[in-house]
Amino acid sequence: MTINDIAKIAGVSVATVSRVMNKKGYVREETRKKVEAIIRDHGYHPNAVARSLISSHSSLIAVIMAERPFSFSSKVLETIESCAGEQGDSVLFYGTGAEQERELRAFSQAFEHQVKGILLLPVMESGEAAVNMIREAEAREIPVVLLDWDLYGEDFDRVVVDNKQVLYDGTRLLLEEGHRKIGVITCREVAKEGSRRRDGYLQCMKDHQIPLKDSYIYDGDFDEESGYDACRTFFALPDPPTAVLACCSSATLGCFHYFKEQNMELGKDVGLVGFDDISLVESMGYPVTTLDRLSREMGRNACSLLYQSMRNGADHKKIVLATRTIRRGSEHMGRCFSLETKG
Amino acid sequence: MTINDIAKIAGVSVATVSRVMNKKGYVREETRKKVEAIIRDHGYHPNAVARSLISSHSSLIAVIMAERPFSFSSKVLETIESCAGEQGDSVLFYGTGAEQERELRAFSQAFEHQVKGILLLPVMESGEAAVNMIREAEAREIPVVLLDWDLYGEDFDRVVVDNKQVLYDGTRLLLEEGHRKIGVITCREVAKEGSRRRDGYLQCMKDHQIPLKDSYIYDGDFDEESGYDACRTFFALPDPPTAVLACCSSATLGCFHYFKEQNMELGKDVGLVGFDDISLVESMGYPVTTLDRLSREMGRNACSLLYQSMRNGADHKKIVLATRTIRRGSEHMGRCFSLETKG
DNA sequence: TGAATGTATGTAAACGTTTACAGATTTGTC
DNA sequence: GACAAATCTGTAAACGTTTACATACATTCA
Prior knowledge:
- The structure is a homodimer.
- Chain A is α/β, with parallel strands linked by helices.
- Among the domains of chain A are: 1-56, lambda repressor-like DNA-binding domains (434 Repressor (Amino-terminal Domain)); 163-293 and 326-342, Rossmann fold, CATH 3.40.50.
- Chain A has 13 helices and 14 strands.
- Chain A has a 7-stranded mixed beta sheet with strand order 2-1-3-4-5-11-14, sandwiched between helices.
- In chain A, helix 5 links the parallel strand 1 and strand 2.
- In chain A, helix 1 packs across helix 3 (29-41), helix 8 packs across helix 9 (193-207) and helix 10 (224-234) crosses helix 11.
- The first copy, chain A, is elongated.
- At the A-B interface, helix 4, helix 5, strand 2, helix 6 and helix 11 of A face helix 4, helix 5, strand 2, helix 6 and helix 11 of B.
- Strand 2 (90-95) of chain A pairs antiparallel with strand 2 of chain B, so a sheet runs across the interface.
- The structure holds a DNA duplex.
């Protein structure tokens, strides 16, 4: 069933059918009605492939991310799909598992499918390879937007959380509660965001003239074990911290595990500020203070940035998003919101 | 940069370039080398759109699911993407939010993009609309595979968990621990899987000649609140249950919440068997017995079923997968594995 | 030697749309 | 009634591939 068949049945030319479908150009009301009826009755769907070929861009956008089963990326993806859907576009999803080979394949396939745009979450160990692929996309005039990835400080379109500020705020929260000995668990994440988070802690401690102790800084990975091990290390110290700051959601859970095992009561025996959406913990009845990246906000902003730069193409923008500090059940918005434009 | 440009640069015809790219037909070794070099040097990617048009099917498969931020669906998606990638295909992701309008749009767009196949997780309140769309896909010779959705008992390709058996096993687990008063929380899920789970409980109780009590059966929704409310109801009874069986992961968490709040210790004051991957809970140090649908297995099996029926098209298959009973840290595989074929 | 087969390459049609252009009809204005 | 403008419709080229077919040369075998 093609546009030709529809045209034949309706007794008009393909051009007319095309005009009806696209609501473009002059069509007599009567003709339009007739054609629309035939399209409906025959369950005809125009071939997006042929459409793409002639118009030289598809109605696809690609989302490329390292697979992480946690809620952040999955909420981002959902939001993006929803936004793209509103524009009549579909989402090509690529998980990379942080493997370089799959990353390159994802870009290749996205190119081959003539995507209109690419949304990129942190994926590569080597930022260099990423930069190359983004440059190649640019050469094809395919806009790329980075999510929560301050890649190399290059001037790409991006939506980020000010990770340094977030952890600065988190640290201050603990300081305000009277803690002076604060252990921090950094997450060696891809793309250096982990170290920015660490910088926020360092800066805040410095601003409040609290001497730093190397033993209070634990360089962990992006997993629960890191949180657990960090705590074990911290609390084996002769002078252990009184509070812990976790820089990713997995580590936060690991801390929980340790505290529970040691019968340490949160807020009494030990302070904790977590990271990201750990609403499951909340669901279980634990009031946790956490620094939540607003995944839905991020997805939405990234999409509008992408569509914007499909139209303009010109200047690069950076959107810095607020985080939400969810504080023991009550919640209030963080303050770091700004919108910068860069020529 | 098109195949024409490459052909011109290489001084050969487009047919030759095509043959080189597809490793199909005769090409002199020398010519092949030259063309390959030129393709590589110019970063040429063949246009998948033009390819699809001529071959009348794309290298796309669609995954349509109601969005649930929990780990099950997101792991399934990742696995599918990985399998599709191995076949050189890309995944179109559609979240429906269980809204009928978005569901229809997802199918439409999948059709328009000429997908090779559709993987369908439970999406529709109304199974009827789903059946219609699946029939339409079949009319277009697009294979559809259902995941964990025993839709209407119709003979579609599908990969399912024997939900009745799973809950049967879960109930028996509690019986073996000596419990006789077992509360069950069903989840009114889409597509009746919830009631099959309930049937498993009923059957097991009956087989063990334990009288049923209506007050021990709570019909909940797919959320944490249901788990919490169910427990509140159960333990307000004059003769409350001694153990609880939750039929979805959210409800399991809700139970936790209640037990924690009431200072009821798991395994001592109350028994609990949960559902699905609640590894987060495990991460926090709680040893939970849970009935886990093997999401990765399911994704993998669904893909192979899909690719298989692209080739054959003929008979419909049903794969019944094992679940994994994760029992207080130690784990062993459930026994319900079988592969049925239906003409 | 010449036919048959195998290898290598090119030509051109086809896939299902969109759209520039042209031609035909209607409407409006003086 | 004539001319311009607006409205309606059709023809055909184009998008970037694949592939059936044709052609040409090389090899094999009787």
